[in-house]
Q: What sequence folds into this?
């Protein structure tokens, strides 16, 4: 009875978690009239035309262009966060220099600042630099990621590196390795779980980001998927709800595939100490 009760509770929790996704899948195949009148999960009449209508909803730009834009921003953000945060974490977690604790405390303190508080001075700075609306409009979204501005990922990597035995650094130093060689041959291979975690969360957060991309992107051809989805609902004309749900469903596919591809690397090596052999 205990096992049966446990299974029923897990099934109930799973149903609650998956219900919004299943509802969106069913709604993406409903006609606009049925979306309003039918609140069930399964459509009475399948309307696969929502996908083609959503893909070509905009006369000037195909919806595939928004996927490409999101892929560019998300991919470069992952690259920038993993490189810059790893280097910053190595300096704060393994190297010894003056005022290291102070700089680490200031970095942690930035976690207390809401992102909406910083968006106005950032916009003023980036506009003064000519990055807003420039030839490459994604500079305001990408340049900060290459400067280790994500304190959460730096903190995550610092804590992970503190779990790596310092005897490995000392052994490498005895063999003649300098700080760069220790980083390349000792810290970097053992930090793969932290790097994969950073990559997964960076990709998901950037792909789903709406506010910052809405602020810094102004041209339709430069929009990313989250911003483009809002264009299906217009207060002055008929709303394309069916195509919007269809494109929303497609927008989940890259996030799902990215997580599935790296979930194994996310958990493997957590208990590795580097002392084997």
A:
């Amino acid at each position: 009875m205990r096992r049966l009760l446990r299974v029923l509770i897990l099934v109930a929790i799973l149903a609650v978690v998956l219900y919004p996704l299943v509802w969106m899948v069913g709604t993406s195949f409903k006609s606009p009239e049925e979306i309003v009148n039918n609140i069930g999960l399964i459509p009475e009449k399948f309307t696969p035309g929502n996908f083609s209508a959503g893909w070509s909803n905009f006369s000037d730009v195909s919806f595939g262009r928004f996927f490409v834009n999101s892929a560019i921003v998300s991919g470069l953000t992952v690259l920038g966060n993993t490189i810059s945060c790893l280097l910053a974490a190595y300096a704060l977690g393994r190297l010894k220099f003056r005022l290291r604790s102070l700089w680490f405390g200031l970095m942690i303190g930035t976690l207390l600042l809401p992102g909406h508080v910083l968006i106005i001075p950032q916009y003023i700075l980036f506009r003064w630099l000519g990055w807003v609306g420039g030839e490459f409009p994604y500079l305001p979204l990408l340049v900060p990621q290459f400067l280790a501005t994500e304190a959460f990922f730096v903190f995550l990597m610092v804590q992970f590196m503190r779990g790596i035995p310092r005897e490995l650094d000392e052994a490498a130093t005895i063999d003649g390795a300098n700080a760069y060689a220790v980083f390349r041959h000792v810290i970097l291979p053992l930090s793969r779980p932290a790097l994969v975690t950073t990559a997964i969360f960076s990709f998901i957060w950037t792909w789903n980001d709406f506010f910052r991309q809405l602020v810094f992107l102004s041209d339709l051809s430069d929009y990313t998927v989250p911003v483009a989805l809002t264009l299906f609902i217009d207060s002055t004309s008929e709303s394309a709800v069916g195509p919007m749900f269809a494109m929303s469903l497609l927008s989940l596919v890259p996030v799902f595939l990215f997580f599935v591809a790296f979930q194994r690397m996310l958990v493997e090596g957590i208990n590795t100490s580097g002392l084997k052999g």
About this structure: Residues 63-94 form the longest helix (32 residues). The CA atoms of residues 114 and 120 lie 12 Å apart. The two ends are 47 Å apart (CA to CA).
